[in-house]
Design brief:
13 strands; alpha/beta; 3-stranded antiparallel beta sheet; 383 residues; binds pyridoxal-5'-phosphate
Length: 383
């Protein structure tokens, strides 16, 4: 049975369909004007000086570490509570992901624990704005400056999130977004890097396209170019960019609907026993862009989570788990580095106890009441 209230659903309209058909009707599928137009539109939305489109958020993060020259012997601080991509992007260069636990109230990296994880090998710090709640960036920026470290923001869940009015991704040295189908907006697959440093932006553009010295349009003789560096093919195609251009136009509306749904769901869940709403409202200098509502089950009942999720599903209510395990507990990392349970208690608690409930713009506040009623009936039965 497909869910009546799906966890996530990309909102693709005639605008996106027509834009894609227009690309397909023309001669240019890559190296065209749409990727540039999309970069300009997203840069305008975030007020970023530079934006570099890429084929995914993971590709963007890997491209940054590669461009910085990270490799074996280097370390990057990474939150334990995140998508595995945040760590993989480091490990793909040969460098080591050094995990730091989450803070309990938000699931974001525990800022107080960052400095203890810094060693002479540390080259960068990565933060993730978990569920769309911004990390307290001024504090992390101060740490990065003090230790002369590159600061990367994984903004996959955070378009629209700001700290002191400045969009996330612009506090650190670079911010990377994901346009995977169930994120705040989509290009099917895709990502973008925003940053202030124009020279680094140029270098990223070079290395995302083979390290070739001339873009397609710059070649005087067709097909003639030189290669000045080792690089990838991490470009975004014109088809993906055409979808993105239409989605950015709709993004403010999507975010507004998410905020309304989140508020409605938080209110409707207030009297439901056995859970705590994550994230709690933040201090006023941080503006969130809720990706989902995290219902954190009481520890006493968290082992019942699979049954609760199954019962929700039986009522047509979709949910998800963000993220299924602290990354250092996942097999690849556990086998490589070993897993010391005592080091990531908050990440483990959130990974094992949280049910991610939908607040996406495919839903309306009335459906938030349905979700809360469903969960209330299930949880009341447990007490
Ligand atoms: C989804 C996600 C990613 C991966 O994004 P892709 O575009 O699929 O590469 C990375 N980091 C976080 C925090 C995510 O939620």
């Amino acid at each position: 049975m497909s869910d009546v209230i799906p966890f996530g659903k990309p909102l693709i309209g005639d605008e996106e369909r027509n834009a894609v058909m227009e690309v397909l009707a023309g001669p240019i599928l890559v190296h065209g004007p749409r990727a540039t137009e999309f970069e300009q539109a997203f840069a305008a939305f975030t007020a970023a000086p530079h934006a570099v489109s890429v084929s995914s958020c993971t590709a963007g993060m890997h491209l940054i570490y590669f461009t910085l020259g990270l490799g074996a012997g280097d370390e990057v601080i990474v939150p334990a509570q995140t998508h595995v991509a945040t760590a993989h992007a480091v490990e793909l260069t040969g460098a080591k992901a050094v995990f730091v636990d989450a803070e309990e109230a938000t699931g974001n990296i525990d800022i107080a624990a960052i400095e203890a994880a810094i060693t002479p090998q540390t080259r960068a710090i990565a933060v993730v704005h978990y569920l769309g709640v911004p990390v307290d960036m001024p504090q992390v920026v101060a740490i990065a400056r003090r230790h002369n470290l590159f600061l990367l923001e994984d903004c996959a869940l955070a378009p629209g999130a700001k700290v002191d009015g400045v969009h996330v991704g612009l506090w650190g040295d670079a911010g990377v977004f994901s346009f995977y189908p169930v994120k705040h907006m989509t290009t099917a697959e895709g990502g973008i890097i925003i940053l202030r440093d124009g020279e680094l932006a140029q270098r990223l553009r070079l290395l995302k396209a083979f390290g070739v010295d001339r873009t397609h349009g710059e070649r005087k003789v067709p097909g003639v170019y030189d290669t000045v560096a080792l690089g990838f093919n991490y470009r975004m195609s014109e088809i993906h960019a055409a979808i993105g251009i239409e989605q950015v136009k709709k993004l403010p509306g999507f975010l507004q609907q998410r905020a309304e749904n989140f508020a409605a769901l938080a209110i409707a869940l207030a009297d439901v026993p056995g859970l705590r709403v994550l994230p709690q409202p933040m201090d006023s200098h941080r503006h969130s862009c809720h990706y989902c509502l995290g219902a954190l089950l009481d520890e006493a009942i968290q082992e019942k989570r699979p049954a609760i999720i199954t019962q929700l599903k039986a009522q047509g209510i979709g949910s998800s788990v963000y993220y299924p395990q602290p990354v250092p507990r996942m097999t690849y990392y556990r086998e490589k580095y070993g897993y010391d349970e005592s080091r990531y208690p908050n990440a483990a608690r959130i990974s094992d106890g949280l049910i991610a409930l939908p607040v996406g713009p495919h839903l309306q506040p009335e459906q938030m009441v349905t979700i809360a009623d469903g969960l209330r009936a299930i949880l009341t039965g447990l007490f």
